From TrEMBL:
Active site as annotated: 53
Disulfide bonds: 22-102, 55-60, 108-310, 187-219
Protein name as annotated: Peroxidase
Similarity comment text for this entry: Belongs to the peroxidase family. Ascorbate peroxidase subfamily. Belongs to the peroxidase family. Classical plant (class III) peroxidase subfamily.
UniProt binding sites for heme b: 180
Residues at the site labelled Transition state stabilizer: 49
Length: 314
């Protein structure tokens, strides 16, 4: 029986966790999301990312949702999160509805996992059964948010190491990076590639020329830090495999996207090519890797709590 440090093997979570205590849980999450995404199509991407930033810091325990408090230094102020992660109002709305129907039952950590899955489905991506039963943390870690979420200018070795620490392998890294098939990134996260990739005041040579020129107009050398560009310029709202096709053409937005192909690791290079030609294969692996990521270090049993308000401990 494979017990991993986080990802692989037995987690104690199972899809039917709320079958008797809150059978409407799935529907309630989906109905709020349908409305939220219809109103703001980018919201699907933002909610998918929120689950990732939760799971990589202390595990999938909704630590990312906590605001500053007497004992809490909010993760929202960490480098990878500040002025960047969004979707808290949608999570609040889901939680409020669930509290009305099944008080003190469905955890914020499970809401994040369900919202990530439903956001994927509503964008045209794969469906999977979400293992449930996570409980919510009574702590947050600003410092771990700064050190355990990989940076956009990561090398392929950095990425592999950061994922390995969470029990995730190269297949998980390449498939989960495919989350960048939807959503946007700010100029500050890709400027280095345009103006000074290697400390020689030259752009990243792997960037395709016309794409590069377009990016420069969105992201000047100074200023415009918060200007945004799609991570998948071909279909930023559609969950598909064009992310990988674009990488093959030198049109991946972040260094962390491009190095999956050009980072000189044969396995990740091969996977990018495989997913670029076989969307079904990507969908299958994405679903599998999302379950693995969702299994990182959950609080179960009597550990943690079921928060009444996702922004604060009870
Ligand atoms: C492999 C390492 C990863 C790195 C270095 C990375 C980095 C980034 C960066 C820098 C942004 C833009 C943030 C901003 O400018 O505000 C971003 C956005 C995003 N990331 Fe990642 N990411 C990684 C993995 C993932 C994973 C595993 C997922 C989910 C499965 C994911 C989903 C997203 C989504 C959906 C967006 C767009 C969010 C929005 O539009 O609000 N990323 N990522
Ligand atoms: Ca967490
Ligand atoms: Ca896409």
């Amino acid at each position: 029986f494979p017990f991993g440090p986080g990802g692989a093997g037995y987690s104690g979570l199972f899809p039917e966790f709320y079958q008797f205590s809150c059978p409407q849980a799935n529907e309630i999450v989906m109905s709020v999301l349908e409305e939220a995404i219809a109103q703001d199509p980018r919201m699907a991407a933002s909610l998918l990312r929120l689950h990732f930033h939760d799971c990589f810091v202390q595990g999938c325990d909704a630590s990312v949702l906590l605001d500053d408090g007497a004992t809490i230094q909010s993760e929202k102020n960490a480098g990878p999160n500040k002025n960047s992660i969004r979707g808290f109002e949608v999570i609040d709305k889901i939680k409020a509805k669930l509290e009305r129907v099944c008080p003190h039952t469905v955890s914020c950590a499970d809401i994040l996992a369900l919202a990530a899955r439903d956001s994927t489905v509503l964008s045209g991506g794969p469906h999977w059964e979400v293992p449930l039963g996570r409980r919510d943390s009574k702590t947050a870690s600003l410092s771990k948010s700064n050190t355990e979420i990989p940076a956009p200018n990561s090398t392929i070795q950095n990425l592999i190491t950061f994922f390995q620490r969470k029990g995730l392998d190269e297949e998980d890294l390449v498939a989960l990076s495919g989350g960048h098939t939807i959503g946007v990134a700010r100029c500050v996260t890709f400027r280095q590639r345009l103006y000074n990739q290697n400390g020689n005041n030259q752009p990243d040579v792997t960037l395709e020329k016309s794409y590069y020129n377009g990016l420069k107009s969105v992201c000047p050398n100074t200023g415009g830090d918060n200007n945004i560009s799609p991570l998948d310029i071909a279909s930023p709202l559609r969950f598909d495999n064009t992310y990988y096709k674009l990488i093959l053409f030198g049109k991946g937005l972040l260094t962390s996207d491009e190095v999956l192909l050009t980072g000189k690791v044969a396995r990740t290079m091969e996977l990018v090519k495989n997913y670029a030609v076989d969307e079904a294969l990507f969908f299958h692996q994405f679903a599998e890797s999302m379950i693995k990521m969702g299994n990182i270090n959950p609080l179960t049993g009597s550990n943690g709590e079921i928060r009444k308000n996702c922004r604060r401990i009870n």
